[in-house]
Amino acid sequence: MKDQAAPGDGPEATAPQRLSTREAAERLGVKPETLYAYVSRGQLSSRRAPGGRGSTFDAAEIDTLARRTGRRTPSPATGDLVFRTGITLIEGDRYYFRGVDATELARQYAYEEVAEWLWTGELRPGIRFTAPVEAQAAARRAVDALPAHSGSTDRLRVAVVAAATADPLRFDLSREAVLAAARSLVPTLVGALPVVAGAPSAAGGTEEAPDTSGARLARQLWPKLTARPADEPSVAALDAALALLIDHDLAASTLAARVAASAHAHPYAVVSAGLGVLEGPLHGAASGLAHRMLAEVLERGSAAPVVADHLRTGRRVPGLGHRLYTSEDPRARALFALLDRMPQAAGALAAARDVVTTTARHAPLHANVDLALAVLSVSCGMSAEAGETVFAVSRTAGWIAHALEEYGERPLRMRPSGQYGGPRPPQPLPTATG
């Protein structure tokens, strides 16, 4: 991935040299949030880039601060591991699936179609994924046995394991077998999730899940997220969210999935590895924090006191900023456009924009996809963890895509060496205590 300079930066730019936000942060070895904290404390000055796309910084001023603070090594957060991949490219504040603009794919095609494109490089309009009866039954039994307070990611992890036990061919890592497992696993996960209490049934009541067999995955998932009846604009927004989130280069959960695939773990185990990492508040669960914040903004009538509470306690304002983009997350932009067509989303959208505007007084951070997911979940009567569920179901296809790629590499190539920092041997045997 290439760093993108701010407009006007380049060979023709005159002195003094200006750096984009990312370039300045990397030169200092800090995160963009820390960079803007330096600005707010008067240790750095910034200038709005032409066109309003982020800020620029004086290179000499950055170098002076780097010498003063001793922070001249790029932060490990920029990524120390580099792997060749033909799946996703993030460049110039946009991202692409196999070279095609991912947001355009999500606008025009259903989740299953985008997943198929990511896996095979072939577009198959109208494709639907079907859960095998035995795998679906095993996954539902396992999920039903969990405590009532279990979260959606807990249920998905258990469902993956149950589906694996129902597939005696799971150790076949041929491309055809892995693709078959992928096409059946995703709907199995959705089918294993319980229906939200009060969700309308096929007959118009509320006792059973609606009959969604043969429907696209977004419609199958809808009653697992909310009790409200499905309408086409809302399901279209959910479908787009699923398609937008399928992959995002080597995020933490994707790296875990590739490590598992490098050891030739079967695809179900690869997905389990990804789910294990996804649950962290800095990854898949981040949208839940944004959901709670938006709900509070709506309750209090303004973003100002809510943002102030976050800053006063030293917490980041959720749903803002992304280290891979200098402007608004393209996934958020695409999803906001669809949410604008939903009358019931007007309040949550206004609250989200209020958060962005209010926070911009402190630091010019832009909306990310977690904030857009929060608008979807709040406006459609979903729980705070609904965004995490959408994220997990969607990213399953991405983990499979990376597994397919990794199975073709040298096995166990991801075997780093530890840099030992403990006591030097020989040490005496420890003395037993107690």
Mean pLDDT: 88
Report the principal-axis shape: globular
Low-confidence spans: 1-15, 72-80, 202-207
Name the helix and strand elements from N-terminus to C-terminus, one letter apiece.
EHHEEHEEEHHHHHHHHHHHHHHH
Percent helix range: 40-55%
List how many beta strands DSSP finds: 6
Instruction: Find the structural class using helix and strand composition.
Output: mainly alpha
Strand order of the largest sheet: 1-3-2
Features of the shown structure:
single chain, 434 residues, mainly alpha, three-stranded antiparallel beta sheet, 50% helix, disordered N terminus
Task: Tell me briefly what this model is.
With 434 residues, this protein is mainly alpha-helical. The protein has helices at residues 21-28, 32-40, 59-69, 102-108, 111-120, 133-144, 152-165, 175-192, 217-225, 232-244, 252-262, 267-278, 286-300, 304-312, 330-339, 346-360, 369-379, 386-406, and strands spanning 18-20, 46-48, 55-58, 88-91, 94-97, 100-101.
